[in-house]
Design a protein that fits this description.
Elements: H1 3-7, E1 13-18, H2 21-30, H3 43-56, H4 58-64, H5 70-74, H6 77-94, H7 96-131, E2 137-143, E3 150-155, E4 158-162, H8 170-184, H9 188-207, H10 221-236, H11 242-247, H12 251-255
Parallel strand pairs: 1-2, 2-4
Antiparallel strand pairs: 3-4
Helix pairs in contact: 3-7, 4-6, 7-8, 7-9, 8-9, 9-10
C-alpha cells in the first residue's frame, strides 16, 4: 500500500497523539528509582533533568509529584509554593536538560504514530475479528518519555503511554491493550482476556510465534493458562462476541488458588 492509500484509510479507531509539556514534566519528575525505567538507554538524561529540577526548587518539585509535607501545608507553605509553580515550570521548559527529554519524547512520538498507522489495517482487522464487535472511537494519547514505564487508559477516551520498544510492534500491541480497557473495563477476568487478545494473539499474529509462554502481567498468567481451553474453543468458533465470552467465564477460573 502506498503512502497516499494509507492516508485515505478510514480508521474506526482514531488515535490523536499528543505531547503536553506540563504532564511530560510531572511524569518524568515523578518516576524515580530503578523500577520506574523501561530501559537504561536515556536513564542518565532523565536523572539529570530530575536533579536539575530538584536543585531549582525542592518544595515545587515535591508539590508537583504529590510529596508535599503536612507540616509545610499547615504552616501556610502550600499557597506560597503553588504561587511559585508557573515560574518553576517555565524555567524547567527553558532548560537544556528538559529540551533533551522533549527531543527524545518527540522522536518516540513520531515512532509510535508511524508504527500505529503502518500496522492499523492489519491490526484492526485482527482485533475486530477477535472481539466480534465493531470498534469506533477517537482517543487522545499523551506520549511520555520512552525510557520510563507508562501505559494506562485513564477514562474519557484518554491514554497515557510511554515505554521502551522491548520487541517488534510493542507500542502497537499495548496501545490496543489500553484501547480495549475502554470497552472491557478492569475486572481481573476482563484484563486477562484483554491480554489474550492483544499481548498474546495480536502479538503472535503480527510477529509470528506462539503462546504460551505468556507475556504481560505475572499475576494474570495463571488465569490465562486456566482460560486457554475455553479461549482456543472461542477462537475456533464462527460466531464471536467477547463480552459474552467474558460473561460466561466460570467464577472459579479467576478465584482458583
Amino acid at each position: 500500500m502506498g503512502c497516499e492509500d494509507r492516508k485515505n484509510v478510514n480508521m474506526a479507531i482514531k488515535l490523536d497523539f499528543k505531547i503536553e509539556d506540563d504532564y511530560l514534566i510531572v511524569h518524568t519528575l515523578s518516576n524515580m528509582g530503578k523500577g520506574k525505567f523501561s530501559s537504561t538507554k536515556c536513564q542518565k538524561d532523565i536523572v539529570a533533568f530530575q536533579n536539575y529540577a530538584w536543585g531549582k526548587c525542592k518544595p515545587c518539585y515535591n508539590l508537583l509529584i504529590g510529596r508535599f509535607q503536612t507540616t509545610k501545608i499547615v504552616k501556610g507553605g502550600l499557597q506560597k509554593t503553588a504561587e511559585q509553580l508557573p515560574k518553576f515550570l517555565n524555567e524547567l521548559k527553558r532548560s537544556e536538560q528538559y529540551k533533551k527529554i522533549r527531543q527524545q519524547t518527540e522522536e518516540y512520538f513520531r515512532f509510535c504514530k508511524n508504527q500505529w498507522n503502518g500496522n492499523y489495517l492489519v491490526a484492526s482487522k485482527i482485533i475486530e475479528e477477535l472481539m466480534g464487535l465493531k470498534l469506533n472511537k477517537k482517543i487522545a494519547v499523551y506520549i511520555t518519555h520512552p525510557g520510563l514505564k507508562n501505559g494506562r487508559y485513564v477514562g474519557n477516551n484518554t491514554i497515557e503511554w510511554g515505554h521502551n520498544e522491548d520487541w517488534p510492534n510493542y507500542a502497537t500491541i499495548y496501545l490496543w491493550h489500553e484501547i480495549l480497557h475502554s470497552y472491557i473495563g478492569y475486572s481481573e477476568k476482563g484484563h486477562a482476556v484483554i491480554e489474550l487478545i492483544t499481548d498474546e494473539e495480536l502479538r503472535t499474529q503480527l510477529n509470528s510465534g506462539k503462546y504460551p509462554p505468556f507475556v504481560g502481567h505475572k499475576y494474570l498468567k495463571s488465569i490465562k493458562n486456566r482460560l486457554l481451553p475455553q479461549w482456543r474453543k472461542y477462537l475456533n468458533s464462527e460466531e464471536r462476541n467477547i463480552r459474552k465470552f467474558i460473561k460466561e467465564i466460570p467464577h472459579g477460573i479467576v478465584n482458583k488458588a
